[in-house]
């Protein structure tokens, strides 16, 4: 028996058994995983596609020292499509931008196609709206005196307003030409409650108004002023 285990025939039998075991192991693996891919490659979270809509700020490429732009939306919607993980990451980080290139346009109304940049090449993006209409106007600046406005009917009976004080007499107003033409006066409006019988002494917002008392869309600097509105009894002099 000892000679049999040490014989060449025994070695051949053992080799054949190992060969058969390896063959069946490989065969069974191919039946279970015929494509030869690993688990991570078949993970649906990595290979599936997804879509998501995000809202992003609209950026303008324009010489803002020379022009004002009117009529454009502050934000636009973007439909993202592509690999699920990439869509989720991009929607959360919003590491791309949508712009309207106005750099070669002159004053007037224009229809401009929006563009995106910085988006991963594996993603497809659809911007809504695809185009916007803008009104480009020359930027103008002028100075205006500031008047204090308040409702006299809100002063309590038997009281009167003394000499009004404010720490800003003039302001610089900047805006598009069309809006600047609408300005009739610049005021610091004091909001009094009914039957006010105490002096008002607070910081007040400065607004530019048109002929109908509506606020004009311009930039005012400084934008506030401290107003003191003395309110005393009618028989007092202060």
From TrEMBL:
Source domain of life: Bacteria
Q: What species is given as this protein's source?
A: Fructilactobacillus lindneri DSM 20690 = JCM 11027
Q: Which InterPro entries match?
A: c-di-AMP_regulator (IPR053154), YbbR (IPR012505)
**Pfam entry (one):** YbbR
Q: Write the protein's name.
A: YbbR-like protein
